[in-house]
Amino acid sequence: MPDMGRTVLKRAFFRLRDAVITESFGSLSENTKIFAMEGILYTLIITLANNNNNLYASRLGATASDLGLIASLPPIVGMLSLIPLAVLTDRMHNKKPMVMLSAVGLGFMYVLVGMLAFLNTSTVPFLILLLVLVNVPMSLYNSSWQAFFSDVIKPVDRNTSYSFRTKMNTAVGIVIPLLAGGILALASGSGKIFVHQIYYWLAFPLALGQVLFLKKIKGGTVHKKSTLRLSDVWKSARTLFHSRTFMGFLAVALLVYCGWEMDWSLYFLAQFRYLHMNEAGISLITVLCAVTQFLTIGLWSRLIEKKGIRFVFVIGAGGFAFCSCFLVLSLILPLTPGLILYYILQSIGSSAYSAFQISVFQCLLEAIPHENRTLSISVYNTVILLSNTIMPYLGIFFYKSLGESRNAMILSIAVIGTVRIIATLAALIRWYRLRGKNIDPVSEEKPES
């Protein structure tokens, strides 16, 4: 009798499991599931390697100025190489090979970054150089993947597919940062650097895993291949910049990105120096933020279906402004209550980051023409990369000019918060002017802010 009871319970459990799987995955296309799995591996690379660049550099002797250079210089090489590689990508019948090549290139570059700690001489200049070069495959991956995704997934399915991929990536961000930070916190002395090296070396096998998944994706073949030549790029870019649809989106997106990028290095310094957070603390806040993002992605996705991507984009921009305001408050308060407040409000405010993630890419695809998509995406990414080279170092410049103190940090974050509030208002105005309108980027008859 007990055996029969256990059998019934097992059957009930497996039926419940199958129902959950069917509910979560059953309605998704095969390509959507594969894109999600490939995205998980890419997220692991970013979480283990790219997100720990500042800690790794600091342990190798990097100063605050060096951290500013690490944030500002890498986009330059990516920016210079992106357009030529985009022309080459657009001339392909299928962009899948370029996505796979860039993924492998990124993994290989991070292996070299991990090897730097073995040098007996000053490693910081070489580290900055390699992190500059890392941006070439990373930028190429982002632009070619975005174009490949738009070729494979139909417009009507993009919100569901991209939201699901983002949700799975965020789920990885809940567990891995906590484990990675915990391991770093347990290590001591030179052992911390060795752990960083292992994280960088793992990037290459993870990139090979991406390739295996990308090979399984069906479709993406463009029957009418682009004949665009490198000499035609300027003419094509001029046409794009004369598009009110594209320029309206670019102006607002650029303002949001500028406000976000200004504190890339400052946030780490605020956590490390003034809130006295160690690796475990930084990993914990990363996990808490990932949890709130994971829990709200479904909400933002449903809101996109009801209110549109431009409305959710406003929420994402507002989240950045909110985070700056409460960081200023956390720094003003005494350490213990300030740190507690930081953990609570950072977790809440970061939920809007997932709204930004799933809306900004869809807003971009809405605003660019159908021909030469990789080039259009690369032009957009080049402009954003240009802001990457300026804004992080500008934030560090404010901080250093004001004296590199707690008060200097508070004033710097306050300036950044003001920029973010202005960006949110610009996004709100754009949404209000275009509410209820379907944008056709091919036709310039329709108004755009």
Topology:
Layout: H1 2-26, H2 30-48, H3 53-59, H4 64-72, H5 74-90, H6 96-115, H7 124-152, H8 158-186, H9 190-201, H10 203-216, H11 233-241, H12 244-261, H13 264-274, H14 279-307, H15 309-332, H16 335-349, H17 351-367, H18 373-401, H19 406-434
Helix pairs in contact: 2-8, 2-10, 4-18, 5-7, 5-18, 6-7, 6-9, 6-10, 7-18, 8-9, 8-14, 8-17, 12-17, 12-18, 12-19, 14-15, 14-16, 14-17, 15-16, 15-17, 15-19, 18-19
Can you describe what's shown?
This protein is 81% helix and 0% strand. The protein has 449 residues and is mainly α. The protein has one domain: Growth Hormone, Chain: A, CATH 1.20.1250. Helix 2 (30-48) runs antiparallel to helix 10. The longest helix has 29 residues, at 124-152. The relative contact order is 0.13. Mean pLDDT is 84; it is low at 16-24 and 440-449.
Helix content: over 70%
Determine the number of helices (DSSP H or I, runs of at least 4 residues): 19
> Based on CA inertia axes, which overall geometry fits?
globular
What is the CATH architecture assignment? Answer: Up-down Bundle
Q: Gap between N and C termini, in Å?
A: 72 Å
Total number of domains? 1
Write down the CATH class.
Answer: Mainly Alpha
Structural class, please?
Answer: mainly alpha
Number of strands: 0
Question: What is the arithmetic mean of pLDDT?
Answer: 84
CATH topology: Growth Hormone, Chain: A
Instruction: Give the CATH superfamily.
Output: MFS general substrate transporter like domains
Supply Rg: 22 Å
Largest sheet: none
Element order, helices and strands?
Answer: HHHHHHHHHHHHHHHHHHH
